[in-house]
Backbone:
């Protein structure tokens, strides 16, 4: 189980096992610490891991950006987190040695599956199967593709400077619901995961339909075009 350290989890629960990972972010090589934690109680076959880097510390854990820049601070934080985790898995660093399946939760981990799909530095992740679990499809982490300090182009400029990759992003991953091309981590994860499931069978059934807020129905929140094709009769989704 992997989360950001938020600046304190590795201090509050030290196990004295730590590693380092280097990864691409914002056109440079960043470095993060990987810490195994001592769990509060014994859990069979579960290893708790946190990623420590100055840019993904908490205080607060989640930011509340104003309406002019929704998700800006958190989207950058979790994009960096995904890059660090992706390189740790690809390199088999410490507790990531022997990992065979990636299990991403919600939009926060969506960029990991996107990088697995498109970024040459994460090509080794393609040998790992990936599952996405959706807890809340209404919170999607949407940011501009470029033109902002918190955008896909700012986090991974090498993807947009390559003409072929830029064209593929425009064709497959550009979210145009907001009047300009945006990058939506949750949408990207739905498109690239080998399997998608939800927190309950009824939620899986609900989010394949468009929302109708006037009638009091919250469904796919704009993503029914992606969710509906992946639905199965059993109420879970698979490719």
Residues:
């Amino acid at each position: 189980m992997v989360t950001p350290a938020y600046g304190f989890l590795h201090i509050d629960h030290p196990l004295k096992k730590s590693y380092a990972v280097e990864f691409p972010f914002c056109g440079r090589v960043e470095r993060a610490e990987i810490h195994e934690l001592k769990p509060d109680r014994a859990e069979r076959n579960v290893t708790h891991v946190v990623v420590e880097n100055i840019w993904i510390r908490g205080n607060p854990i989640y930011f509340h950006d104003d309406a002019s820049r929704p998700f800006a601070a958190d989207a950058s934080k979790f994009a960096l987190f995904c890059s660090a985790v992706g390189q740790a898995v690809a390199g088999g660093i410490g507790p990531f040695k022997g990992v065979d399946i990636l299990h991403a939760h919600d939009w926060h981990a969506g960029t990991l599956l996107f990088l697995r799909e498109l970024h040459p530095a994460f090509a080794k992740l393609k040998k790992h199967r990936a599952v996405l679990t959706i807890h809340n499809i209404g919170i999607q982490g949407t940011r501009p593709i470029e033109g902002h300090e918190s955008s896909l182009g700012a986090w991974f400029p090498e993807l947009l400077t390559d003409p072929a990759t830029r064209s593929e992003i425009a064709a497959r991953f550009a979210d145009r619901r907001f009047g300009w091309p945006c990058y939506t981590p949750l949408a990207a994860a739905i498109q690239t995961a080998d399997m998608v499931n939800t927190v309950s069978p009824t939620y899986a059934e609900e989010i394949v339909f468009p929302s109708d807020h006037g009638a009091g129905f919250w469904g796919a929140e704009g993503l029914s075009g992606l969710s509906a094709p992946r639905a199965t009769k059993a109420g879970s989704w698979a490719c």
Observations:
- The chain has nine helices and eleven strands.
- The domain at 68-193 is CATH 3.40.50.2000 (Rossmann fold).
- Residues 233-239 have pLDDT under 50 and may be disordered.
